Amino acid sequence: MDILIHAEKFTLEDRKRDLILEKVGKLQQYMQRALRARVTLRMDSAHASEKQFVAKLLMEVPGQDMAAEQKASEPLEAVDLLVEKMERQLRKRKTERISKRTKGVDKEAIAFS
Which sign, positive or negative, has the C-alpha torsion 76, 21, 89, 61? Predict the structure, then answer.
């Protein structure tokens, strides 16, 4: 999976960029066929506040792409919250996909085979 990181209105250090790559890369365990993840970090205001940084994540996956957005006071904190949010979405999608496969299967027939 390709991971593209774009920072708007501020510069992102290489160390922080590597941490973001590592955190977003862990999402691939929930969607192995993911093509690309686009992470956009933006500084909303120059003044320090609880919601100074906005992080957006677009996961390009087969079917409908998945997106999430999170705000926080630090860019890495926003990415942490964003990864947790996307993780929940991906788990939910995977669970729904698996339940569709087993919906029509007679579970008692499988147990006695």
Answer: positive
Q: Domain holding 85: CATH number?
A: 3.30.160.100
Return the pLDDT at 101.
82
Angle between helices 14-25 and 75-102 (to 10 degrees): 10
Q: What is the pLDDT of residue 57?
A: 97
Which residues of the chain have a pLDDT value below 50?
none
19-48 residue pLDDT tens = 999 999 999 998 899 999 999 999 998 888
Sequence letter at residue 48: A
Which residue range is the domain that position 7 belongs to? Answer: 2-103
Q: Which residues lie below 8 Å from residue 83, measured CB to CB, with a gap of 6+? A: 23, 24, 26, 27, 57
User: DSSP assignment, residue 27?
Assistant: G
71, 44 contact by CB (below 8 A): yes
CA gap 3, 11 in Å, rounded: 18
Query: Would residue 83 count as lying in a domain?
Result: yes
